[in-house]
Structures are given as structure tokens and as C-alpha cells.
Specification:
The chain is built from five helices and no strands. The protein has 159 residues and is an all-alpha fold. 23% of the residues are buried. The chain has a single domain, classed as Four Helix Bundle (Hemerythrin (Met), subunit A). Bound molecules: fe (ii) ion (FE2). The site of fe (ii) ion has 5 residues, from helix 3 and helix 4.
Length: 159
């Protein structure tokens, strides 16, 4: 993660979206089952951590700052849906159901991309127009990210 200490919260989110996007591209290219499992493990961890820091830090601050609860609630709900898909994929991996895994992984990618697009077109620009201190918020997010990795959330993947 190349985020410097002065990265704005909104740019942090964009960077994370691009990072997971790249992982999905790698997942699509690989046919090797073990590699697939490893890449999906990384995607699952990255997306879970991202979900935690946006739910706990970014969304609550955004809700207060932009005075439009609806787009924040929508982003949160989309993210809950992504979490459900990730859990289903984890189970499919455990059952070694490869065909079902591939189609569900594609569904996860499509849902994630739609969510990122919505956030980047609506929510993030709205937050950037508000008077929120985005650098400070970014620092809070990075702090929680570190705490979560320390707490073992970062080691769930099959490494
Ligand atoms: Fe998100």
C-alpha cells in the first residue's frame, strides 16, 4: 500500500478499489487452482478490511458531512451484499466446487465494480465538496487498518 500519511480518505478508497480491481484481473487470468485460491484469499481479506474501515470510519463521517443519508446508506448496503457474496465464495472454495466458484466470482466482480462506480461518481465527490478534513479522516482509516491487520483479520487468507 503506497498511501502516504497525507492521503485523503477519498483517495485512499479509490486506491483500494483499483488495488482489488487488479486482483480480479489476475484471478480471471489464472487457471491454476492453488493460485486462484491464493488470489481470492487476498481479495477476500482486502475487501473485508476495506468494508470495516468504511463502515466504522468513513460512512459515519460522510453521513454527517454531506447531509444526504440516502447515498451513504446505499453504499453501505451494497457493501453488505459484497460481504455475503465473499462468504458464499469462501464456502464454495472449501467444497471445491470450481464451476460454481467461477460464476460466483464473476458475480462478485460485477457487483463490486458497480459499487465502486457508484461511490466514485456520487459519494466521493460529494464528500470532497463538504468541509470534512479528509486528510485527518484518512489517517483514522489507516490507523484502523493497521489495528485490524494486527488483530489477525489480515491473516485469514490461505497464504
Ligand atoms: Fe466500498
Amino acid at each position: 500500500m503506497a498511501a502516504s500519511d497525507n492521503t485523503r480518505a477519498t483517495d485512499l478508497i479509490r486506491n483500494e478499489h483499483r488495488n482489488v480491481e487488479t486482483l480480479f484481473q489476475q484471478l480471471e487470468k489464472t487457471t491454476e487452482p492453488e493460485e486462484k485460491e491464493a488470489i481470492f484469499g487476498t481479495i477476500a481479506v482486502e475487501m473485508s478490511v476495506h468494508s470495516e474501515i468504511t463502515d466504522k470510519v468513513f460512512y459515519p463521517a460522510a453521513k454527517k458531512a454531506i447531509g444526504n443519508e440516502a447515498i451513504v446508506v446505499k453504499a453501505h448496503e451494497e457493501q453488505q451484499h459484497l460481504k455475503t457474496l465473499i462468504d458464499q465464495l469462501r464456502r464454495l472454495l472449501a467444497d471445491l466446487d470450481k464451476d460454481e466458484f467461477d460464476s460466483k466470482a464473476n458475480a462478485l466482480r460485477a457487483a463490486a465494480e458497480a459499487h465502486w462506480r457508484a461511490e466514485e461518481e456520487e459519494l466521493l465527490p460529494a464528500v470532497e465538496k463538504s468541509d470534512l478534513d479528509l486528510v485527518q479522516l484518512g489517517q483514522q482509516m489507516m490507523q484502523l487498518q493497521q489495528d485490524l491487520s494486527g488483530a489477525g483479520l489480515g491473516s485469514q487468507g490461505p497464504m
